[in-house]
Every structure is written in structure tokens, then in C-alpha cells.
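Here is a protein:
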Amino acid sequence: MQEKIITFLQEIKKSTDKEIDQALQNSEPMIEGLYKSAIYSAAGGKRVRAVYTNLVGRLFDVDPDCMLKTACAVEMIHAASLIMDDLPYMDDSQLRRGKPANHVVFGQDVALCASIAMLAKANELVLMDDRIDSDVKIKVSQVLLHSYGFEGLAAGQFVDLKLKRKNIEYEIIRYINDKKTAALFTAAGKAGAIIGNANDDQIHAIEEYSRNIGFAFQIIDDILDVTGDKEVVGKDLSHDSMNYVMLVGKEEAEKRAKKYTDKALNTLKLFGDKAKELVAFSEFLINRVN
């Protein structure tokens, strides 16, 4: 099953890359630089969140074509958030996905404009998708908007900037992980469930799975930030010196990553054998090396 997940990841990455490239085609010479900046950061990445959106869609037997634009929208939100994360007045990172951060290449002003434009384009992709019903599109768009506002990425980044560096406490780190990494995983999963016409109990189960697997994903990311190779991980490893591992230690972090993964898997019991791909996805995430 792990080999199947890896193959599926490669397939989704290929289709997502193609769709995002088409979405960022430009015919206005005056803003060519803005598009170049967006394309620079939208390209690459493992497309983990796009894969997850599609796996949830498969759980509800959704036609893959109906998942494509929403999965791309999730990836564009993620890419936009990375641009902001890397800015000098945020995390001040020089490297992202194995290449210079967006602001290093295009400047802080252009990077910020590109990030805002990508957030708008993400929702546009969903709302203009003629393969899903209008009421479903509105619900999905609301979920995506929620993921990066006062209850999502913006809130997490604010606490990261204003509180974490002064008060290194478990609840602060947990809040940041909940509002940043877990929030986008939750949006990705819930969007897939909505497109799949899931009922309330099923949506709640996917939300709980998403949140817990998002926590586990971030803890593994923090471990890699401490123990990984900069060339393999593809980003600066020295800037975030106050992450989960620094708080509780590597061994305890690994235990908690497994704990969150187990909690995530427990929520999948509602779906029985149909959730076997999501079970394999969970194992893939916790065992990753970059």
C-alpha cells in the first residue's frame, strides 16, 4: 500500500503541477514580474495536501476531475503562506524548497503581492470550477477562506511572531501548529468531503483526522528541522530554534507524533476498509525523511 501511495503522490503531483501552471498563465505584460514571482513559489513541492484532498475524494467515490481545481487551490494557499513565512520580518528564511526564497529573488514587495494574488486565485479556481455544483463551490470556498484568516494561518503566524519567541510554552506551540499546519490540512480534507457529499458525521471524522494528522506532520517537520540535512529538507534549518523538539526533546516529540497519528487513525474507523488509503497515507507522513 505504501508503494501505491507513493505512485499516487507522483501522479497527483504531475496533474497538480500542470493545472497550476495553466492557472498562472499571463497575457498582461505590465504584471509579468508578478506572475513570475507566483509561478516561482507555486512550482515544486511534494503536493502532500493535494494528494490528501484527492484521497478524501476517493473515499467518497468522487470523480478525480472534480477534485483537481480544489486540490490546486489548497496547494496555492500553501505556497502563498510559505512566501509570507520566509519574509525578513516573519521567519527571515533565505531558502525554500531547495532554492532561494521568493523575496530573495523578487524582492519583499513583489513577494507579498504575489502571495496575496495567489490567495485570491485559489478561491477563484474553486468558484469557477464547472465540474462541481454551485452550492458545493461556495461551501468549499468558505472552508478555504477560513483556513487562512483569523481562525487559521494569519492567527498562527501572529502568535508565532508575537508570543512564541517570548514564551516558549506547549500551549503556544500547539496553537501555532493548530492554526498553521493543521488548519490547512483540515481545509484540504473537509473540502474533499464536501465535494463527496459527506454527511455531518463523516465530515466531523475527516476534520478530526485532518487536525491530528496535521499535528503529527508538523512534529515530524520540527524533528527534521533539528536532525535533517539542509540539502535534503530544502529549507533553512537554523531559523526556527523554538519548535516542538526544542520544547520537549526529540524522543518525546516522536512519541507525540505517533500519539497524534494513532488518534487520527482512530477517527477513520467510521469508514471501515474504505479508509485503507488514508491509513497508508498516515504511515507515509510519519515515516517521511524530508
The first helix runs from residue 2 to 23.
